[in-house]
Design brief:
Layout lengths: L1 E6 L7 H15 L3 E6 L22 H12 L2 E7 L7 H10 L6 E4 L7 E4 L5 E7 L4 H6 L4 H11 L6 E7 L7 H18 L27
Parallel strand pairs: 1-2, 1-3, 3-6, 6-7
Antiparallel strand pairs: 4-5
Length: 221
């Protein structure tokens, strides 16, 4: 299986990068092909130009490459911190420029004229790993867990991905080495659960739908 791994954190020594590294290593150990992008290291340009907005626009080569990789991915892994209840701007720009009509979704005619979305991605599941410095209960009761809504409903759900699993690790700023090791072990277990060894078939990448695990905001997260 081809699995796309995207990490968005400016600090290479951050726990986000440790998560992404664990994801890639576990996927490779399980025999999968990993396509990885560190958006900050690659200096991904997050600005969507007006000329890119039409569905039939001729895209810059690097954006076309990202679109092709997304279209061919059997699974997707996104790693980023919770900044103000949102992904970092560079990742939001990746969403704006890459998750585009004709690549990730399209709109069909609807009864009310607004169009009915139809997902185009082939990926059977999307995993999102987040880090935060907000306590879980506060994240849910005060802020309403916005990242859950963004990734599950506004992005991957619209793109037709049937299984969406998100895990928030917190509180990063006060976490111990032992806690972080345990969290990385959990990341590896989660990867093995959704992308086990020998899972090269479409049916294998569509495990039973599960509820998203807790999540939350961001020491080096």
């Amino acid at each position: 299986m081809k699995v796309l791994v995207i990490v968005a954190h400016p600090n290479k020594s951050s726990f986000n990068h440790a998560i992404a590294s664990t994801c890639s290593k576990t996927l490779i150990d399980n025999g999968h092909e990993v396509i990885s992008h560190d958006l900050y290291e690659e200096q991904f340009n997050p600005l969507l130009a007006a000329g890119e907005m039409p569905r039939d626009a001729v895209l810059p080569p690097e954006i076309q490459q990202h679109c092709d990789e997304l279209s061919l991915a059997d699974g997707i892994v996104i790693v980023h911190p919770n900044w103000w209840g949102q992904p970092p701007a560079i990742l939001k720009g990746w969403v704006d420029r890459v998750i585009r009509p004709g690549v990730a979704y399209e709109f069909q005619e609807g009864d009310t004229g607004e169009g009915v979305p139809r997902g185009l991605l082939r990926a059977g599941c999307a995993l999102i790993f987040n880090t935060s410095n907000t306590e879980t209960t506060r994240e849910k009761t005060v802020f309403g867990d916005p990242l859950k809504l963004i990734w599950r409903d506004c992005i991957w759900g619209l793109c037709g991905i049937p299984n969406i699993h998100r895990r928030m690790f917190n509180i990063i700023v006060t976490s111990t080495d032992e806690e972080r090791k345990g969290w990385l072990d959990e990341v590896a277990v989660t990867i093995c659960r959704f992308f086990p060894k020998g899972s090269h078939d479409v049916a294998m990448r569509r495990p039973a739908k599960t509820a998203a695990l807790p999540h939350h905001s961001n020491k080096k997260r």
